[in-house]
Amino acid sequence: MSVPSLLAVFAHPDDESLSAGGVLARHAAAGARTGVVTSTWAADTGRAAELAAALRILGAGEPRLLGYADARVPSSAPGRARFCDAPLDEAVRHLVAHIRAFRPEIVVTHDAYGGVTGHPDHVHTHRVTMLAAQAAGLARFHPDAGAPWQPHALYLATHPHSAVPALRAVVGERKTAYSVPDELVTAAVDVGPWLERKIAAVLAHRSEVARGAVPGLLARLSVPEWKRLMGTEWFIRHDLATTAPARTELTV
Keyword set for this entry (predicted)? Predict the structure, then answer.
């Protein structure tokens, strides 16, 4: 059985590797087309270069950037609006163009909390992606953005409640960790065989390692600790295409 094509949409460089690096590597290794759209940071910045390095490791092609500014780092896209402040229809239209150009069977993005950290750019990326994944299939929605294409399913990267205690050992007790009841998780993907690539992709975001962000915290861990914390990726599935000939799923 062929492995479905997959387009991931995440807020910042490094989110793709942390939240879905294993799934991206797994699908690419099976011969599927994979790609990543990133909401923030401009193409001529250091973090965009780090993103390009991470995507090469994961087999996810070249960066696809919406080019908005990070909510907390105005210099991430000089002269551009913060992603959270940009007109919603504009952001959706830009993402629709990427979806129609790539024509993925599956779209992956942050859950409604914006993942475990709840960063406002993550939350807004979730909103924009939910709208764009549906609007991409509507012929009269910005026909200038490409021919209609309806992805079969949307997968929201999440964390179950049961995973939070282990995460606390890394992020600390003082930080809020957003998670969902375990029964809401519809796909728990064992990415152990691709963990080496996932680790390398996370560490390719060198500036985040250097400043002690999540990649920096993870860089201190042993491989067994990486496997315990990052060896499974969790998702909540939403069906989008009711006329799809067969159920399209992440490879688990």
Answer: Zinc
Q: Which residues pair with 70 in a beta bridge?
A: 73
Can you tell me the distance from the alpha carbon of 17 to that of 19, in angstroms, rounded to the nearest whole number?
6
What pLDDT sits at residue 241?
A: 74
- The model's pTM is 0.94
DSSP 211-237: TTSHHHHHHTS-HHHHHHHHSEEEEEE
Distance in angstroms (rounded) separating the CA atoms of residues 54 and 48: 10
Three-state secondary-structure class, residue 65:
strand
| Whether pLDDT at 208 is above 90 | yes
Strand partners, 233: 189
CA distance from start to end of the chain: 13
Which element (helix H / strand E) includes 66? strand 64-68
